[in-house]
Amino acid sequence: MERFFATAPGRVNLLGEHVDYNQGIVLPAAVDRRVKIHARRLAEPRALLHALDFSQQVELSLSLDALNARCDREGNPLPAWALYPAGVAWALLRSGYPVEGLEATYTSDIPIGAGLSSSAAVEVAFASLWQAMGGWTISRLDLARLCQYAENAYVGVNCGLMDQFASVHGIAGHALCFDVRALTYEAVPLPGDVMLVIADSGVRRSLAASAYNERRAACEEAVERLRPYLPGIQALRDVRVEDFSRLAHFLPEVVRRRAQHVVEEIARVERAVEALKRADIVLFGQLMLQGHRSLRDLYEVSTPELDFLVDFAARQPGCWGARLTGAGFGGCTINLVQREWVEPFVRNLKEAYQREIGLTAEVYICLASVGAHAQRVN
Ligand code: GLA
Fold this sequence. Notes:
Layout: E1 3-13, E2 25-26, E3 28-41, E4 46-51, E5 56-61, H1 64-68, H2 83-94, E6 102-108, H3 118-134, H4 140-155, H5 162-169, E7 174-179, E8 184-189, E9 194-204, H6 208-226, H7 241-247, H8 253-277, H9 281-297, H10 304-314, E10 319-325, E11 330-338, H11 342-357, E12 362-366, E13 373-376
Parallel strand pairs: 4-6
Antiparallel strand pairs: 1-3, 1-13, 2-7, 3-6, 4-5, 7-8, 9-11, 9-12, 10-11
Bound molecules: alpha-D-galactopyranose (GLA).
């Protein structure tokens, strides 16, 4: 029996938050926390999925009709975790790719719901697996887009392309400067002596999906309202900082704040990428802190716990920059910490968080890592 292995990483975003769905520029890195799938081919069009982390299993029929129903082979509604592999199978079939029958056992060490793209990693790992099993070709970018399509249209989360992109394209030791409009990217080396220290606030906001969609809607409204003054604009990507300052008073208060974050954040990423190329980690860190303040005050997606973690981190020796990472509404902060300072940094941060907030912060010390791959193993 043919056996396969597939793996895909989570990601951390260094800068460029809530700009991917505004056709902006993002700067994520894949991290060395991953989904791993071991699979064997089945002759019939069904998928028997064992999710080790949930101690659950589900059996799917691999036909569009059955997948459309979001039910297992016995007609029971799919548990949330199974929507991701099912969504990928559905997106592949809808796009005309064959989807092989399989039995797959998988596990992940990416914390769930923490803003590190655990769901994108599951999608990308399964898409890579089915590609390796089917032997068909697809560009890596199209693979990422297909997973985004699964998440948007099947799972029902209206995310942008950043997470799936990063999980597919990750390069060890590098951040990925991804232009979501041009769909091009450049790998930018991260300083070898700086670690990606990710601190999980442990807080999860239940209405995060609707708050995310509200932010998207505000950005679209800003474009509509600015278009009479800037004919032809398609997205906030088209609005320069100078134009925004001149025109901001035409926008309602909340929409103005949301749009200001996006317009300035895109400019910030441009500056930060230049700084990183010059190995100017001091400026890079300052831009991260500015990005956090903007997410806190203008985009309003931070929480008191994330603010505490960022403010505390920014005062620690050896920490170049800190900010919330991912959509916000809870989840994690990313801290760039000089290697020799990591140990006291982590100890002090955890102690302070416990003492002041009364919660335990899990901390993940990560390296920028390679993207998804899948292969036959026998
Ligand atoms: C989530 C989404 C991404 C992106 C970020 C915010 O991670 O999945 O597409 O919009 O939020 O930057």
